[in-house]
Design brief:
By secondary structure, the chain is α+β, with helices and mostly antiparallel strands. The chain has two helices and seven strands, in the order αβββββββα. The strands form two sheets. A five-stranded antiparallel β-sheet has the order 6-5-4-3-7, with helices on one face. A two-stranded antiparallel sheet has the order 1-2. It starts with 5 loop residues before the first helix and ends with a helix.
Length: 93
């Protein structure tokens, strides 16, 4: 099972996966760990409502690369409740 941060285990914050890079390819450069309140490795709902893991950010155009649906505007992402994210994560393993 992917490693979870201590912060995620201790309180009801969004699910953030420390070893998120195993879900990605490295063709999308990222320069920041966080963009508009979302973190790398965070499990989120994408623009069409599918659950995905944030793999990278492109600050220039405000997009995020997800393992679910490629790239999408960060403004279209929604926080995924931790309990739902953990259930979905179990289906990926």
């Amino acid at each position: 099972m992917p490693e979870l941060t201590e912060e995620t285990r201790e309180n009801n914050t969004p699910l953030v996966i420390d070893d998120y890079t195993k879900y990605c390819c490295v063709d999308y450069p990222t320069t920041s760990e966080e963009l508009d309140g979302f973190k790398l490795g965070e499990v989120v709902y994408d623009q069409i409502g599918e659950i995905g893991v944030i793999l990278a950010f492109n600050e220039k155009n405000g997009t995020a690369r997800l393992n679910s649906n490629g790239c999408c505007n960060v403004g279209n992402l929604k926080k995924c409740p931790k309990t739902i994210a953990e259930k979905k994560l179990g289906t990926w393993i």
